[in-house]
């Protein structure tokens, strides 16, 4: 097999990408401290046509050299907004008709592979701080919680990795 070249991939321009229909999914980042994680979420969001990102609390915003290192320009193609309060962002999304789910290990969480995605639904997923996870106040506001099943010794994934897995699940259900 021969590797594809950039020309083989038919990549969109930023303007062309912005005109494409997005999946009705908003990714909310709750106090993410690592700029590399933020950039990675931007890049994954670009790859799967996420509607927008809501960057909350201490989560840094573009322009940033560190975010760009992993986003590789996706910070220019993916729509984003900043919210001082994650709780306020969640309430706004719910008022707009989004079902908001935290990616968090909580009692009663639904396993990601069992979470039903309705093709005509609007969703938001909240990913939390690298150590503390999604703030309890935010978990309490969410319409539900999604857990990624794990069988190793750690039972925790990097926030960018867990967000990518959840985005993929919603992409399959909403595209």
Describe, in plain words, how this protein is organized in 3D:
The protein is an alpha/beta fold and 175 residues long. It has a single domain, classed as SPOUT methyltransferase, trefoil knot domain (Alpha/beta knot). Helix content is 38%, strand content 21%. It is built from eight helices and seven strands; from the N terminus they run ααβαβααβαβββαβα. The protein has a seven-stranded parallel β-sheet, sandwiched between helices. Helix 3 links the parallel strand 1 and strand 2. Helix 3 packs parallel to helix 4 (65-71) and helix 3 (35-47) runs parallel beside helix 8. The longest helix is centred in the C-terminal third of the chain and has 16 residues, at 159-174. The chain starts with 5 loop residues before the first helix and ends with a helix. The model has no long low-confidence stretch (mean pLDDT 97).
Helix content: 25-40%
In spatial order, strands of the major sheet run: 3-2-1-6-4-7-5
Count of extended strands:
7
Radius of gyration: 16 Å
Give the total of domains. 1
* CATH architecture label: 3-Layer(aba) Sandwich
Order of helices and strands: HHEHEHHEHEEEHEH
Number of helices: 8
- Averaging pLDDT over every residue, what do you get? 97
CATH topology: Alpha/beta knot
Distance between the termini: 29 Å
Task: Classify the secondary structure makeup into a structural class.
Answer: alpha/beta
Strand content: 15-25%
